[in-house]
Protein backbone atom coordinates (compact mmCIF):
# COMPACT_ATOMS: atom_id res chain seq x y z
CA UNK A 1 0.00 0.00 0.00
CA UNK A 2 1.05 3.57 -0.74
CA UNK A 3 -0.23 6.39 1.44
CA UNK A 4 -1.71 9.25 -0.56
CA UNK A 5 -3.36 12.62 -0.07
CA UNK A 6 -5.68 14.36 -2.50
CA UNK A 7 -7.32 17.80 -2.62
CA UNK A 8 -10.98 16.89 -3.06
CA UNK A 9 -14.35 18.64 -3.19
CA UNK A 10 -17.77 17.14 -2.75
CA UNK A 11 -19.86 20.23 -3.49
CA UNK A 12 -19.37 23.31 -5.65
CA UNK A 13 -18.20 26.59 -4.18
CA UNK A 14 -15.13 28.73 -3.55
CA UNK A 15 -11.96 26.60 -3.37
CA UNK A 16 -11.13 27.78 0.17
CA UNK A 17 -14.57 26.67 1.35
CA UNK A 18 -15.00 23.35 -0.43
CA UNK A 19 -11.53 21.87 -0.93
CA UNK A 20 -10.22 19.52 1.70
CA UNK A 21 -7.26 17.21 1.99
CA UNK A 22 -8.24 13.55 1.99
CA UNK A 23 -5.84 10.85 3.12
CA UNK A 24 -6.22 7.38 1.68
CA UNK A 25 -4.16 4.41 0.62
CA UNK A 26 -3.45 3.02 -2.81
CA UNK A 27 -3.01 -0.70 -3.35
CA UNK A 28 -0.31 -2.29 -5.47
CA UNK A 29 -1.21 -1.92 -9.18
CA UNK A 30 -3.02 -4.81 -10.88
CA UNK A 31 -3.30 -5.57 -14.59
CA UNK A 32 -2.91 -2.39 -16.61
CA UNK A 33 -2.91 -0.11 -13.55
CA UNK A 34 -0.05 2.27 -12.84
CA UNK A 35 0.87 3.88 -9.52
CA UNK A 36 2.09 7.44 -9.76
CA UNK A 37 3.72 10.13 -7.67
CA UNK A 38 3.03 13.81 -8.30
CA UNK A 39 5.88 15.94 -9.58
CA UNK A 40 4.15 19.20 -10.54
CA UNK A 41 0.56 20.28 -11.13
CA UNK A 42 -0.51 23.82 -12.01
CA UNK A 43 -3.59 25.74 -10.87
CA UNK A 44 -5.28 27.02 -14.00
CA UNK A 45 -8.29 29.38 -14.14
CA UNK A 46 -10.52 26.57 -15.46
CA UNK A 47 -9.68 24.41 -12.43
CA UNK A 48 -11.24 27.03 -10.18
CA UNK A 49 -14.27 27.49 -12.42
CA UNK A 50 -14.74 23.72 -12.26
CA UNK A 51 -14.73 23.75 -8.46
CA UNK A 52 -17.16 26.68 -8.49
CA UNK A 53 -19.48 24.53 -10.60
CA UNK A 54 -19.56 27.04 -13.46
CA UNK A 55 -17.45 25.07 -15.94
CA UNK A 56 -19.15 22.90 -18.57
CA UNK A 57 -17.11 19.77 -17.85
CA UNK A 58 -17.69 18.50 -14.34
CA UNK A 59 -15.79 15.47 -13.07
CA UNK A 60 -18.29 13.10 -11.43
CA UNK A 61 -18.36 12.88 -7.63
CA UNK A 62 -17.25 9.36 -6.75
CA UNK A 63 -16.51 7.26 -3.70
CA UNK A 64 -13.46 5.51 -5.13
CA UNK A 65 -10.99 7.22 -2.77
CA UNK A 66 -13.09 6.32 0.26
CA UNK A 67 -14.27 9.84 1.09
CA UNK A 68 -17.27 9.94 3.43
CA UNK A 69 -19.28 11.74 0.74
CA UNK A 70 -18.65 11.19 -3.01
CA UNK A 71 -16.06 13.66 -4.24
CA UNK A 72 -13.84 14.71 -7.13
CA UNK A 73 -10.13 15.49 -7.12
CA UNK A 74 -9.22 19.02 -8.28
CA UNK A 75 -6.81 19.91 -11.07
CA UNK A 76 -6.68 18.99 -14.74
CA UNK A 77 -3.04 18.66 -15.71
CA UNK A 78 0.29 17.75 -14.18
CA UNK A 79 3.46 15.72 -14.45
CA UNK A 80 3.70 12.43 -12.57
CA UNK A 81 6.41 9.84 -12.08
CA UNK A 82 5.68 6.13 -12.44
CA UNK A 83 6.30 4.32 -9.14
CA UNK A 84 5.12 0.84 -10.07
CA UNK A 85 3.17 -0.93 -12.79
CA UNK A 86 0.75 -3.86 -12.97
CA UNK A 87 1.77 -7.04 -14.77
CA UNK A 88 -0.29 -6.11 -17.85
CA UNK A 89 1.29 -2.68 -18.37
CA UNK A 90 3.13 -2.60 -21.69
CA UNK A 91 4.56 0.83 -22.34
CA UNK A 92 5.45 2.27 -18.96
CA UNK A 93 8.15 1.44 -16.45
CA UNK A 94 9.21 2.72 -13.06
CA UNK A 95 10.80 6.13 -13.30
CA UNK A 96 8.97 7.20 -16.46
CA UNK A 97 7.33 10.61 -16.47
CA UNK A 98 3.75 10.84 -17.66
CA UNK A 99 0.92 13.31 -18.14
CA UNK A 100 -2.77 12.60 -18.33
CA UNK A 101 -4.31 11.98 -21.71
CA UNK A 102 -7.52 13.82 -20.88
CA UNK A 103 -8.54 16.62 -18.59
CA UNK A 104 -10.88 15.92 -15.68
CA UNK A 105 -8.85 13.12 -14.06
CA UNK A 106 -7.87 15.11 -10.96
CA UNK A 107 -4.19 15.99 -10.63
CA UNK A 108 -3.96 17.68 -7.24
CA UNK A 109 -2.87 14.61 -5.37
CA UNK A 110 0.39 13.28 -4.03
CA UNK A 111 -0.17 9.85 -5.59
CA UNK A 112 -2.62 8.32 -8.00
CA UNK A 113 -3.52 4.98 -9.50
CA UNK A 114 -4.61 5.17 -13.12
CA UNK A 115 -4.96 2.87 -16.06
CA UNK A 116 -2.10 2.89 -18.56
CA UNK A 117 -4.56 3.88 -21.30
CA UNK A 118 -5.20 7.20 -19.54
CA UNK A 119 -1.55 8.26 -19.62
CA UNK A 120 0.86 9.75 -22.11
CA UNK A 121 4.47 8.72 -21.62
CA UNK A 122 7.05 11.47 -22.10
CA UNK A 123 9.35 9.67 -24.48
CA UNK A 124 12.36 11.84 -23.94
CA UNK A 125 12.54 13.78 -20.71
CA UNK A 126 16.20 14.74 -21.11
CA UNK A 127 16.76 18.38 -20.23
CA UNK A 128 13.11 18.90 -19.37
CA UNK A 129 11.78 19.86 -15.94
CA UNK A 130 8.59 18.65 -14.24
CA UNK A 131 7.23 22.19 -14.57
CA UNK A 132 7.70 22.18 -18.34
CA UNK A 133 6.00 18.82 -18.68
CA UNK A 134 3.29 19.51 -16.12
CA UNK A 135 2.16 22.69 -17.87
CA UNK A 136 2.50 21.64 -21.52
CA UNK A 137 -0.86 20.08 -22.23
CA UNK A 138 -3.30 22.94 -21.67
CA UNK A 139 -1.86 26.41 -22.30
CA UNK A 140 0.78 25.78 -24.98
CA UNK A 141 -1.46 23.34 -26.85
CA UNK A 142 -4.28 25.91 -26.84
CA UNK A 143 -2.05 28.65 -28.23
CA UNK A 144 -0.45 26.33 -30.78
CA UNK A 145 -3.74 25.03 -32.20
CA UNK A 146 -5.46 28.43 -32.28
CA UNK A 147 -2.62 29.87 -34.33
CA UNK A 148 -2.34 26.89 -36.68
CA UNK A 149 -5.96 25.90 -37.22
CA UNK A 150 -8.05 29.05 -37.69
CA UNK A 151 -6.13 31.06 -40.19
CA UNK A 152 -4.58 30.54 -43.61
CA UNK A 153 -1.26 32.17 -42.98
CA UNK A 154 0.72 33.03 -46.04
CA UNK A 155 3.90 31.20 -45.03
CA UNK A 156 5.72 32.76 -47.99
CA UNK A 157 5.35 36.10 -46.31
CA UNK A 158 6.81 35.18 -42.93
CA UNK A 159 7.25 38.28 -40.83
CA UNK A 160 4.61 40.29 -42.68
CA UNK A 161 1.43 39.14 -40.99
CA UNK A 162 0.21 39.71 -37.46
CA UNK A 163 -1.90 38.29 -34.73
CA UNK A 164 -3.33 40.39 -31.93
CA UNK A 165 -4.17 39.02 -28.50
CA UNK A 166 -5.36 40.12 -25.08
CA UNK A 167 -4.34 38.46 -21.82
CA UNK A 168 -0.91 38.40 -23.44
CA UNK A 169 0.90 37.80 -20.15
CA UNK A 170 -1.16 34.67 -19.39
CA UNK A 171 0.22 31.18 -19.90
CA UNK A 172 -1.58 30.92 -23.22
CA UNK A 173 -0.52 34.43 -24.21
CA UNK A 174 3.15 33.81 -23.51
CA UNK A 175 2.98 30.61 -25.52
CA UNK A 176 1.36 32.43 -28.46
CA UNK A 177 4.12 35.07 -28.39
CA UNK A 178 6.80 32.39 -28.62
CA UNK A 179 5.12 30.39 -31.38
CA UNK A 180 4.66 33.65 -33.28
CA UNK A 181 8.36 34.36 -32.98
CA UNK A 182 9.25 30.81 -34.10
CA UNK A 183 6.84 30.78 -37.03
CA UNK A 184 7.39 34.29 -38.34
CA UNK A 185 4.08 35.77 -37.18
CA UNK A 186 4.28 39.20 -35.62
CA UNK A 187 2.35 39.61 -32.37
CA UNK A 188 0.54 42.68 -31.07
CA UNK A 189 0.00 42.01 -27.39
CA UNK A 190 -2.46 43.60 -25.01
CA UNK A 191 -1.97 43.48 -21.23
CA UNK A 192 -3.65 45.30 -18.37
CA UNK A 193 -1.83 48.30 -16.97
CA UNK A 194 0.04 47.57 -13.72
CA UNK A 195 0.07 49.58 -10.48
CA UNK A 196 2.90 51.90 -11.55
CA UNK A 197 4.27 52.99 -14.95
CA UNK A 198 7.56 51.25 -14.08
CA UNK A 199 5.78 47.95 -13.49
CA UNK A 200 3.89 48.31 -16.75
CA UNK A 201 7.12 48.99 -18.63
CA UNK A 202 8.77 46.01 -16.95
CA UNK A 203 5.94 43.72 -18.06
CA UNK A 204 6.14 45.07 -21.62
CA UNK A 205 9.89 44.51 -21.65
CA UNK A 206 9.47 40.98 -20.32
CA UNK A 207 7.07 40.05 -23.12
CA UNK A 208 9.32 41.64 -25.74
CA UNK A 209 12.16 39.56 -24.38
CA UNK A 210 10.01 36.50 -25.08
CA UNK A 211 9.54 37.61 -28.66
CA UNK A 212 6.53 39.95 -28.62
CA UNK A 213 6.70 42.37 -31.56
CA UNK A 214 4.65 45.04 -29.79
CA UNK A 215 2.97 45.33 -26.40
CA UNK A 216 0.27 47.84 -25.45
CA UNK A 217 -1.94 48.17 -22.41
CA UNK A 218 -5.70 47.72 -22.52
CA UNK A 219 -5.97 51.35 -21.47
CA UNK A 220 -3.83 52.46 -24.45
CA UNK A 221 -5.87 50.27 -26.80
CA UNK A 222 -9.14 51.84 -25.66
CA UNK A 223 -7.91 55.38 -26.38
CA UNK A 224 -8.96 57.17 -29.55
CA UNK A 225 -5.60 57.05 -31.30
CA UNK A 226 -5.08 53.28 -31.16
CA UNK A 227 -6.21 53.05 -34.77
CA UNK A 228 -3.34 55.29 -35.83
CA UNK A 229 -0.91 53.25 -33.79
CA UNK A 230 -2.06 50.01 -35.46
CA UNK A 231 -1.88 51.66 -38.87
CA UNK A 232 1.69 52.64 -38.20
CA UNK A 233 3.03 49.36 -36.76
CA UNK A 234 1.39 47.36 -39.55
CA UNK A 235 2.99 49.60 -42.20
CA UNK A 236 -0.29 51.25 -43.19
CA UNK A 237 -2.02 47.87 -43.25
CA UNK A 238 0.47 46.27 -45.64
CA UNK A 239 1.11 43.77 -42.87
CA UNK A 240 -2.43 42.61 -42.09
CA UNK A 241 -3.63 41.46 -38.68
CA UNK A 242 -5.16 38.13 -39.58
CA UNK A 243 -6.00 36.58 -36.25
CA UNK A 244 -7.23 37.79 -32.86
CA UNK A 245 -7.01 35.61 -29.76
CA UNK A 246 -9.46 36.69 -27.09
CA UNK A 247 -9.57 35.48 -23.49
CA UNK A 248 -10.99 38.67 -21.95
CA UNK A 249 -14.25 39.70 -23.67
CA UNK A 250 -16.08 43.02 -23.25
CA UNK A 251 -14.74 46.25 -24.76
CA UNK A 252 -11.30 44.74 -24.95
CA UNK A 253 -12.49 42.04 -27.36
CA UNK A 254 -14.39 44.58 -29.49
CA UNK A 255 -11.23 46.65 -29.80
CA UNK A 256 -9.24 43.61 -30.93
CA UNK A 257 -11.83 42.78 -33.59
CA UNK A 258 -11.69 46.31 -35.00
CA UNK A 259 -8.01 45.93 -35.85
CA UNK A 260 -8.52 42.85 -38.01
CA UNK A 261 -8.07 42.84 -41.78
CA UNK A 262 -11.03 41.72 -43.93
CA UNK A 263 -11.78 37.96 -43.86
CA UNK A 264 -9.81 37.43 -40.64
CA UNK A 265 -10.72 35.37 -37.58
CA UNK A 266 -11.20 36.10 -33.94
CA UNK A 267 -10.96 33.04 -31.69
CA UNK A 268 -12.45 33.36 -28.21
CA UNK A 269 -11.06 30.91 -25.67
CA UNK A 270 -11.60 32.58 -22.32
CA UNK A 271 -13.77 35.18 -20.61
CA UNK A 272 -11.64 36.64 -17.85
CA UNK A 273 -13.59 39.92 -17.59
CA UNK A 274 -16.89 37.97 -17.51
CA UNK A 275 -18.24 40.53 -20.00
CA UNK A 276 -19.93 39.33 -23.20
CA UNK A 277 -18.28 39.77 -26.58
CA UNK A 278 -20.11 42.57 -28.42
CA UNK A 279 -19.49 42.98 -32.13
CA UNK A 280 -20.26 45.97 -34.35
CA UNK A 281 -22.45 44.62 -37.19
CA UNK A 282 -20.24 46.24 -39.81
CA UNK A 283 -17.38 43.93 -38.94
CA UNK A 284 -19.57 40.99 -39.89
CA UNK A 285 -21.19 42.55 -42.95
CA UNK A 286 -18.45 44.55 -44.60
CA UNK A 287 -15.29 42.90 -43.31
CA UNK A 288 -16.56 39.34 -43.36
CA UNK A 289 -14.82 38.54 -40.11
CA UNK A 290 -15.34 35.10 -38.58
CA UNK A 291 -15.80 34.59 -34.88
CA UNK A 292 -14.88 31.21 -33.52
CA UNK A 293 -14.40 29.56 -30.16
CA UNK A 294 -11.83 27.02 -29.03
CA UNK A 295 -11.84 24.56 -26.14
CA UNK A 296 -8.73 22.45 -25.78
CA UNK A 297 -10.46 19.71 -23.73
CA UNK A 298 -12.97 18.97 -26.45
CA UNK A 299 -10.37 19.39 -29.20
CA UNK A 300 -7.98 16.98 -27.45
CA UNK A 301 -10.65 14.31 -26.97
CA UNK A 302 -11.41 14.47 -30.68
CA UNK A 303 -7.79 14.61 -31.84
CA UNK A 304 -5.76 12.50 -29.40
CA UNK A 305 -2.94 11.77 -31.82
CA UNK A 306 -2.56 15.34 -32.96
CA UNK A 307 -2.59 16.39 -29.32
CA UNK A 308 0.32 14.06 -28.56
CA UNK A 309 2.23 15.35 -31.57
CA UNK A 310 1.57 18.94 -30.58
CA UNK A 311 2.88 18.22 -27.08
CA UNK A 312 5.98 16.57 -28.55
CA UNK A 313 6.59 19.56 -30.74
CA UNK A 314 6.29 22.00 -27.83
CA UNK A 315 8.61 19.89 -25.68
CA UNK A 316 11.13 19.79 -28.52
CA UNK A 317 11.06 23.59 -28.73
CA UNK A 318 11.43 23.69 -24.94
CA UNK A 319 14.40 21.35 -24.97
CA UNK A 320 16.15 23.41 -27.59
CA UNK A 321 15.68 26.58 -25.54
CA UNK A 322 13.14 28.14 -27.91
CA UNK A 323 10.20 27.90 -25.55
CA UNK A 324 10.57 29.39 -22.09
CA UNK A 325 8.97 28.59 -18.75
CA UNK A 326 6.04 30.61 -17.48
CA UNK A 327 6.64 32.59 -14.29
CA UNK A 328 5.35 30.55 -11.37
CA UNK A 329 4.37 30.91 -7.78
CA UNK A 330 5.59 27.61 -6.41
CA UNK A 331 3.58 25.93 -3.65
CA UNK A 332 5.55 23.13 -2.02
CA UNK A 333 3.23 20.28 -1.17
CA UNK A 334 4.91 18.09 1.43
CA UNK A 335 3.42 15.21 3.36
CA UNK A 336 2.77 17.61 6.24
CA UNK A 337 1.07 20.33 4.19
CA UNK A 338 -2.30 21.30 5.63
CA UNK A 339 -5.49 21.25 3.55
CA UNK A 340 -6.57 24.86 4.28
CA UNK A 341 -3.17 26.24 3.20
CA UNK A 342 -3.25 24.29 -0.06
CA UNK A 343 -6.87 25.35 -0.68
CA UNK A 344 -5.92 28.98 -0.02
CA UNK A 345 -3.29 28.85 -2.78
CA UNK A 346 -5.93 27.56 -5.20
CA UNK A 347 -8.23 30.41 -4.14
CA UNK A 348 -5.72 32.99 -5.39
CA UNK A 349 -5.80 31.70 -8.98
CA UNK A 350 -8.43 34.11 -10.32
CA UNK A 351 -7.10 37.09 -8.38
CA UNK A 352 -5.56 38.94 -11.33
CA UNK A 353 -2.26 40.89 -11.50
CA UNK A 354 -0.36 37.84 -10.29
CA UNK A 355 3.39 37.49 -10.61
CA UNK A 356 3.12 33.86 -11.70
CA UNK A 357 0.88 30.86 -12.08
CA UNK A 358 0.40 28.81 -8.93
CA UNK A 359 1.92 25.33 -9.19
CA UNK A 360 2.02 22.51 -6.69
CA UNK A 361 5.28 20.61 -6.48
CA UNK A 362 5.57 17.49 -4.41
P1 LIG B 1 -3.02 32.56 -16.38
O1 LIG B 1 -3.46 32.14 -15.03
O2 LIG B 1 -1.66 32.26 -16.84
O3 LIG B 1 -3.26 34.14 -16.53
C1 LIG B 1 -4.48 34.74 -16.28
C2 LIG B 1 -4.65 35.89 -17.25
O4 LIG B 1 -5.94 36.46 -17.12
C3 LIG B 1 -3.67 37.03 -17.04
O5 LIG B 1 -3.27 37.52 -18.29
C4 LIG B 1 -4.51 38.06 -16.30
O6 LIG B 1 -4.08 39.37 -16.52
C5 LIG B 1 -5.84 37.87 -16.97
N1 LIG B 1 -6.95 38.34 -16.15
C6 LIG B 1 -7.28 37.95 -14.90
N2 LIG B 1 -8.39 38.58 -14.49
C7 LIG B 1 -8.76 39.40 -15.51
C8 LIG B 1 -9.85 40.32 -15.70
N3 LIG B 1 -10.76 40.52 -14.75
N4 LIG B 1 -9.90 40.99 -16.87
C9 LIG B 1 -8.99 40.80 -17.82
N5 LIG B 1 -7.96 39.93 -17.72
C10 LIG B 1 -7.85 39.25 -16.57
O7 LIG B 1 -4.09 32.03 -17.40
P2 LIG B 1 -4.07 30.86 -18.47
O8 LIG B 1 -3.11 31.14 -19.53
O9 LIG B 1 -4.02 29.56 -17.79
O10 LIG B 1 -5.53 31.08 -19.05
C11 LIG B 1 -5.86 32.30 -19.72
C12 LIG B 1 -7.29 32.22 -20.19
O11 LIG B 1 -7.38 31.19 -21.14
C13 LIG B 1 -8.30 31.88 -19.11
O12 LIG B 1 -9.49 32.58 -19.39
C14 LIG B 1 -8.51 30.40 -19.29
O13 LIG B 1 -9.76 29.97 -18.83
C15 LIG B 1 -8.40 30.30 -20.79
N6 LIG B 1 -8.01 28.99 -21.30
C16 LIG B 1 -8.86 28.42 -22.18
C17 LIG B 1 -8.56 27.23 -22.76
C18 LIG B 1 -9.50 26.67 -23.75
O14 LIG B 1 -9.32 25.55 -24.19
N7 LIG B 1 -10.53 27.38 -24.14
C19 LIG B 1 -7.35 26.48 -22.41
C20 LIG B 1 -6.48 27.21 -21.51
C21 LIG B 1 -6.83 28.41 -20.97
P3 LIG B 1 -3.49 40.25 -15.29
O15 LIG B 1 -2.09 39.77 -15.08
O16 LIG B 1 -3.58 41.64 -15.80
O17 LIG B 1 -4.38 39.99 -14.10
How would you portray this structure in words?
- The protein has 362 residues and is α/β, with parallel strands linked by helices.
- Helix content is 31%, strand content 23%.
- The protein has helices at residues 15-18, 45-52, 130-134, 139-149, 171-183, 197-210, 218-221, 226-233, 250-258, 281-285, 296-302, 304-319, 339-347, and strands at 2-9, 20-26, 33-42, 72-73, 79-85, 97-100, 111-115, 119-121, 162-165, 186-191, 214-217, 241-246, 265-268, 290-293, 328-332, 357-361.
- Strand 12 (241-246), helix 9 (250-258) and strand 13 (265-268) form a beta-alpha-beta unit.
- Helix 4 (139-149) packs across helix 12 (304-319).
- The radius of gyration is 21 Å and the shape is globular.
- The structure holds NADPH dihydro-nicotinamide-adenine-dinucleotide phosphate.
- The site of NADPH dihydro-nicotinamide-adenine-dinucleotide phosphate has 26 residues, from helix 2, helix 4 and helix 5.
